[in-house]
Amino acid sequence: MKRRLIPFVLAFMLPMLVMLPFKTAADANDKATKSLLNTFNGTILDFDASRIAWKEKDKVLWLFNRKDGTQVKVFDGTGSTNIIRQAKLSAQGVVYNLYTDPGSGVWPRVSSVYYWKSGETSRIAADESLFDIRGNGNFALLSRHNVDLTTGQTRELGYDRVEFSADGTMLYTSPVAPVNAFALFRSLPDGTVTQLATPSNKVVSFDSNFGFYGPLTDGKNILYRELVESNNYAKQVWALRLRSADNTVTTLSVNPRLAYTANTYYRINNGWIAYIEYDKAISRQVVNVRSPEGIVKRVFESPYWWSWTRAPLAIDELGPDGTVAFTFNDKTYLYYMKEEKTVSIQRSPSKFQYREHVFDGPGDSPYRAGVWYLQSADSLYAVRI
To answer: Which of 314, 332, 309 has the alpha carbon at shortest distance from 265?
Structure first.
């Protein structure tokens, strides 16, 4: 199916979004123009093009319909010892994690994961926690298992971060003998497992396992990091690798002490890659965006006063056109690749997030419209640059 991206036009196509004037200033201190879409007497846990999952006082979970303004109660723990830890939208429902309220005095505490769909609820895991929903909303990543929400099939969790393609293909890392370094694996929906790569593991380490960590994919390319040197945690060196569909491996950067988690260090989407790199020449961290053609553009440099122990830098989101959202020193930025323009929100827990809206088109070619949002604890905003 051919994808056709129509970025930033959805405000003209859905009544839930309000038209906002485009700004012309182009410096990093420009404030993003935003318009309030929805606000709740509680905390927003997840949202998509048509739904919002939010909780009220950690006890009641609601599913709000953004199209008609109606909502249904997914869970009500009023009077019980359970609280809602988190919830994620699946393709057809809501997956949520209940946990024993620490203030209840009940011990041992219990963590369970439930799946709500069309008014029916089932428990899909006991003594586990919900991590994320992947693969077009059909796979729940839990602390020890992965669950196919359409079939109920479970698969063992890879050691590190697990990634799902839309067809259910799973990428993960796991140790291999005899060196006990972490290799990269692919697991097909039918259970067929293939080892894609084994690290060199040339350096002896007593505090960390060498090998691959944090695979991410856009369905064609695989992005992951490799621990290549480690005398202790403060002296770790990581290489960021890109494996293409023909198994060609490209090293994008080699960095000391960068963020350990994949979701803050790098992102991949539609062939575009955003990643954090330490520029040794200027002793600063930077954000780079690499195009599908391999052209790298620097979109942010940390200021001179930056240090390893303060003002963390993290990548939050990457759009299919290379537009990237990132956070530095309690300020969140959005760099719009098409216009080479940056806007920001000052000192706010809010972060820019991207969602795609799909519309029927002629034949088998649906239109996809990309929209950037700003989510705070209790409110959702439309964003214009």
So the answer is: 314
Domain count, the chain: 1
What is the number of alpha carbons within 13 Å of residue 39 lying toward its C-beta?
A: 2
Residue 371 in any domain: the answer is yes
End-to-end CA distance of the chain: 30
Q: What's the confidence (pLDDT) of residue 26?
A: 30
The pLDDT tens digits for 14-57 are: 333 332 222 222 334 567 788 899 999 999 999 998 999 999 99
Q: Average the pLDDT over each of 61-75, 217-231, 241-255 and give the range with the smallest value.
A: 217-231
* One-letter identity of residue 111: S
pTM: 0.83
Q: Which amino acid is at 229?
A: E
Say if 183 falls within a structural domain: no
pLDDT score, position 165: 76
- Domain assignment of residue 171, yes or no: no
